[in-house]
Amino acid sequence: MSTATEEHTHSFQAEVRQLLDIVIHSLYTDKEIFVRELVSNASDALEKMRLKQLTEKDIFEAERELAIEITTDEENNTLTISDSGIGMNRDELVENLGTIAHSGTKAFLEKMKEKGDNNADVIGQFGVGFYSAFMAAHKVEVHTHSWEKDSPGHTWSSDGASGYSIDDKADAKRGCEIVVHLKEGMEEFAKEARIKSILEKYSNFVSFPIKLNGEHINTVEALWLKSKSDVTEEQYNAFYKFTAHAFDDPRYTMHFSADAPLSIHALLFTPTENTEQFGMGQMEAGVSLYCRKVLIDAKPEKLLPEWLRFLRGVIDSEDLPLNISRESMQDSALVQKLNGLITKRYLKFLEKEAKNNTEAYLEFYKKFSRFLKEGIATSYEHQEQLAGLMRFESSLEEAGKLTSFSEYIDCAKDEQENIYYLTGMSRDAIESGPYLEAFKARGLEVCFFTEPVDQYVMDALPEFKGKKLVSADRGEIELDDVATEGEELDKKAAKKLIKFLEKELSERIDKVESSGRLIDSPVAALTPKEAPNAQMRAMMQAMGQDMPVTKATLEINPRHEVIHGLSQLVESDEDTAKLVAQQLTDNALLAAGLLENPHQMAKRMNELIAKLVEKK
């Protein structure tokens, strides 16, 4: 019997030569990707073999363990990746490695579907990912034997340029053994430590054992593909710490799978702490994207909105379009769809938590409300869901107790069309101002927002469930009359006083009105509809931005004794009346955050005190 090997030399298909040129020179930005690709292909071949074992009896080396063996050889500058998978015969070598018109995976899937088996858990297109090896190799050898007993073994060899040869190999084992002869300058991929780091980065969750120089590398389970009932809390906590490089346990764990409209397996964790609160800088995105347990991108852009950057975990989708490179997701529309689906699912999860475990949700909200508010200001499509998750104090709740917009609407009067709110530095500051009293007198609840970011949020949120959100310090609000104490200034005197005030205050006030809004305060400055309020102006000043000139409407309380006294001063002592009018205006503008020069206010107060002392 002859032992001579039979050799056939082939030229690459033209499309393959073009592909090789792209792969080697421009497709991948990181050379290490080729290791991931070859391991993914090995996993693909093993999965095919596992399915064959369920349907076929005559299998070559049937007892061989389904595993991936990787060997580094620094002396010979080679990297060898072996699998005990389905292997290839001569025709399959030509079809899968010599052409791009066919895909081993595609053909296999079609064959499995013909048999009625749609559970083939395969990864990528073998004939494409394989060529990435030539980024690092000057020569690649593939020693292979098909699963079929009567098929001989072969060696496929190529320099990635001139073509390839196929030789007979009598001692080939079932599966594929790929020997990567590394180029000069690529010696790092013959080092065990370098390959181990790549495997731990990309291939930790491959279903089959990966052994590097005999050491089992992928020991962590892909929990996101398991049923929730099969995973313990301890396993979730350990997985969170592993993937997020965290030391604490997660605050929330969301684990779900979906088949439509996209195939998704997700395991997302909410950390216990918000590190941004500690001044540690903005968090980086922490949800990795996988396809069938192979890492596609550790920090994919736009997979989730930026305001969900605090989330940690894994999203795995079989629907990713990985036509040429797992390095780049080429269908941005699909990524946007993933973004929308996962975001809505997470917000629904929070809604459920807020309802079923209120105290725990409030603890979460105290830590992470900034992110939700950022979402309201930047993600219109999620505004209503996010607004429903907001919690805040209000005028009808005792200090420290938080409520929501939904609870506000449930308690509102039937005919009430608006949700009223006020922003300020604190609850005390809001309650001591002149704007709340009119609403309290009418039994209208007012929401309190006391964080600097809140004004941006409320400006971005026009309504909630059909109810308009209206700032209670705005001049255009119309309120029903309410019975109040005190005699109202007669119309003639009120008209004269308003004329006096408009003349004296023309440079500072747009107009003066008499109304029934005020209860305990003599005057109030009402901010125009389009003008920034006190909190917004304070933020703009802190950022060094120029302040727009804003003239407020001055409302006077015709029942207040100070207004009665001012009316009399207009008749008896006009100079003092002018000082009082200016001082009242200063007080009102200060409360509205519109006072430009507080030094003038102090000077005017001293003049008023001097007049009082003189009269004594």
Automatic annotation (TrEMBL):
Ubl conjugation recorded as keyword: no
Gene Ontology MF terms: ATP binding; ATP hydrolysis activity; ATP-dependent protein folding chaperone; unfolded protein binding
Main location: cytoplasm
A GO cellular component entry from the record: cytoplasm
Protein name: Chaperone protein HtpG
Function according to Swiss-Prot or TrEMBL: Molecular chaperone. Has ATPase activity.
Chain positions covered by the region annotation C: 539-616
Chain sites annotated for binding ATP: 37, 41, 83, 88, 96, 103-104, 125-130, 326
Native source species: Oceaniferula spumae
Subunit structure: Homodimer.
Residues that span the membrane, as ranges: none
Localisation per UniProt entry: Cytoplasm
Similarity comment: Belongs to the heat shock protein 90 family.
Swiss-Prot/TrEMBL keywords: ATP-binding, Chaperone, Cytoplasm, Nucleotide-binding, Stress response
A, as annotated region: 1-326
